[in-house]
Amino acid sequence: MDLAAQALKPRQDAYWWRLLATGLCFAFFGVASLLVRLTVFPLLAALPGDAAHHQRRARLAINRLFRLFIGFMRGVGVFTFSVEGAERLGRPGQMIIANHPSLIDVVVMLAFIRDSNCVVKQSLLANPFTRKPMQAARYIGNSGSLDMLEEAARVLQEGQTLIVFPEGTRTTPGQPPQFHRGAAAIALRGARVLTPVTISVSPTTLTKAEPWYRIPHRRFHFQLRVGADIDPQAFAALGPAPLASRKLNDHLHQHFTKELALDEHPGT
């Protein structure tokens, strides 16, 4: 559904309360993030332990903050939520590929996986409010460089779970996802298993095309669906790395296109 058609629908489902609650959620997230950055992370940095201990503590703090935020959003009635197969996320050496329809996708994924790495936008590593937590958790900046690909492959080889959004930015509403081939290249270099996660948001909201206050006509539903595992080595056996990467990327694109079509036309 395009944004113009959605705007013509009658407002319902406690619209004005949801508008106020959405603003409260963003304010809550901003204030909580600032307090955590100024209090929790300096305390964690002062605790004894090696780099691995500090990394796990930082990721746990982010996980708890994001779970609190998701609970707050659901509690004030901004959205409903469902998840299928979350118990299969967070395995050693697992690379998780997800589409990216909304602003809160990264928050939800990190809220459901307690100790995971994530490829994040470079802007988050430069932002004074998010830089310290991102660095403490040792998330990987999405620079698109060969060094970034190698770093992502290395953490997978070490047994970390890695979350990647191969679109690099939020999907344009009404358009199929467009995956950069870097995600497939990382999977072929280091992943023990590749797991696709389909995210759907209905009605669409918090997209690139609309500000936070342009809320949908009714409460939106956020669904996270974990797909069947993919063996990267099955594609590595198809030929040289560039060919294997292209084949895997095409397979992922087809998978997500099919899954998202099912969400738009259930029962077909």
How is this fold's topology laid out?
Layout lengths: L2 H5 L7 H32 L4 H25 L3 E6 L9 E5 L6 H8 L4 E4 L1 H5 L4 H7 L2 E2 L4 H12 L4 E3 L17 H9 L2 E10 L17 E7 L5 H5 L4 H24 L4
Parallel strand pairs: 1-7, 2-5, 2-6, 3-4, 3-5
Antiparallel strand pairs: 6-7
Question: What would you say this structure looks like, in words?
Answer:
49% of the residues lie in helices and 14% in strands. It has a seven-stranded mixed sheet, with helices on both faces. With 268 residues, it is of the alpha/beta class. The model has no long low-confidence stretch (mean pLDDT 90). It has helices spanning 3-7, 15-46, 51-75, 105-112, 122-126, 131-137, 146-157, 182-190, 232-236, 241-264, and strands at 79-84, 94-98, 117-120, 140-141, 162-164, 193-202, 220-226. The chain has ten helices and seven strands. The radius of gyration is 19 Å and the shape is globular. The chain has a single domain, classed as Glycerol-3-phosphate (1)-acyltransferase (3-Layer(aba) Sandwich).
Keywords:
single chain, 268 residues, alpha/beta, Glycerol-3-phosphate (1)-acyltransferase, seven-stranded mixed beta sheet, 10 helices, 7 strands, 49% helix, membrane, transmembrane, Plipid/glycerol_acylTrfase, transferase, 1-acylglycerol-3-phosphate O-acyltransferase activity
Quick summary:
The chain has one domain: Glycerol-3-phosphate (1)-acyltransferase.
